Amino acid sequence: MHPWIAKRTESFDSSGIRRVFDLAAKLDDPINLSIGQPDFDVPESVRKVCIDAIETGKNAYSQTQGIAPLRERLAQEIQQAYGHDDREVFVCSGTSGGLVLTMLALVDPGDEVLFFDPFFVMYPALIRMVGGVPVAIDSYPDFRIDCQQIADKITDRTKAIIVNSPANPTGVTASQEELKALAELAAERNIALISDEIYSSFMYDEPFTSPAAFNPQTIVIDGFSKSHAMTGWRVGYVHGPREVIETMIKIQQYTFVCAPQPAQWAGLEALDVDLSPHIDDYRRKRDIVVEGLKDRFELVVPGGAFYAFPKAPGGSGAKLVERAIERGLLIIPGNIFSARDSHFRISFAASDETLERGIEVLRTLG
Ligand code: PMP
To answer: Is residue 174 part of a domain?
Structure first.
């Protein structure tokens, strides 16, 4: 370890996921079912607005909290959905930027933050980065929210709970009842509820529900990366109680400064794009994966996002992934997202042909 490097960077490790991507780089024409972003491009009208913004000189810093037209439009939609008195929104650099600011704004050293295992890889890393203590709640085998399990983990130091529905890496969507119970528990115990809603557009069987519908103090983080395939454009937004949001804006001013201005104008346009053809297409892809694997693998049917998280026969996701890679199929071992190594993640954000080829390989391993 180089003597200049800060201790906090030792508290998390990204070698697992890097290993998978290094392998991907070595494979010649892999069947790639490892990717965490849509396989469609940014909608044409959105691309055009971004280009126009650049060409008409909208290239400077924006206000830290985001361009007014986007903020006002988001505020209007949020007001319509929730009608909370004390709710403000600001634009940040992707959902990841929103997560970083949330952690910096809420978590003091030693504070405990609860989240569900399997989890999005950033959660424990960011909690540790700010000196917090990650507390995982095991949600196997069905990946449901069990409030008793949460209540058992709450201590005097519990500051926040992170929920992510639809979820990465399982694709599982929490039911209204689960979200209501979770929202009420957080309110009762005065714990911040952080809802990562990056996959909210990708719901296949029922309309999206946010825990903010049941707990007006919920901090919601969302963005355009997945819904509009804008992962490289870095536009997200956070809404929640005014004081919390103002604190986050203050930190953004001294860190990210603002989200890229041309991409914010594109975000405003994105709110008018009809995503339903893409969602219908991804529902169909979800069905292809479930139909193709259900007789060979133990699998919770994903109700959203674009991931499936089957159990590896034989019990080791890492071993199954090794065998898959030998056959040119790139998928991600569950232990990247979990304390357990029993499952593996497939992304169905891929062409039908790639999906069919991937399923064919998986069936030889199942
Ligand atoms: N949350 C979850 C659950 C994700 O899967 C991702 C992207 N993989 C993010 C946040 C980050 O997305 P963004 O591009 O908006 O930073």
So the answer is: yes
Cα 199 to ligand 1 centroid, rounded to whole Å: 8
Round to whole Å and give the CA distance between 110 and 157.
7
Segment 179-237, tens digit of pLDDT: 999 999 999 999 999 999 999 999 999 999 999 999 999 999 999 999 999 999 999 99
187 located within any domain: yes
With respect to residue 2, please indicate whether it lies within any of the assigned structural domains: no
- Residue 255 is part of which domain span? 61-270
Local confidence band at 1 (pLDDT 50, 70, 90 cut-offs): confident
User: Across the beta sheet with 219-223, what order do the strands follow?
Assistant: 88-92, 236-240, 219-223, 192-196, 158-163, 112-117, 133-138
For ligand 1, the distance from its centroid to the CA atom of residue 222, given in whole angstroms, is 9
Do 176 and 298 belong together in one domain?
A: no
Tell how far the Cα of 220 is from the centroid of ligand 1, in angstroms.
13
Regarding whether 247 and 154 lie in a shared domain, the answer is yes
- Which of 198, 221, 345 to mutate for ligand 1's pocket (most ligand atoms within 8 Å of CB)? 198
The tens digit of pLDDT for each residue in 333-363 reads 999 999 999 999 999 999 999 999 999 999 9
Pocket of ligand 1 (CB under 6 A): 36, 94-96, 120, 164, 168, 196, 198, 223, 225, 231, 236
CA 296 to centroid of ligand 1, rounded, Å: 30
> What single-letter amino acid sits at 203?
M
Residues 234 and 311 placed together within one structural domain of the fold? no
Distance CA 265, CA 66 (A): 10
Look at residue 52 and tell me if it is in a domain: no
Question: Distance (Å, rounded) from C-alpha 237 to C-alpha 143?
Answer: 27
Which mutation among 117, 172, 226 tests ligand 1's pocket best, with the greatest number of atoms within 8 A of CB?
Answer: 226
- Single out the residue in 247, 270, 293 at which a domain terminates: 270
Structural domains counted in the chain: 2
Token duo for residue 202: 């990708």
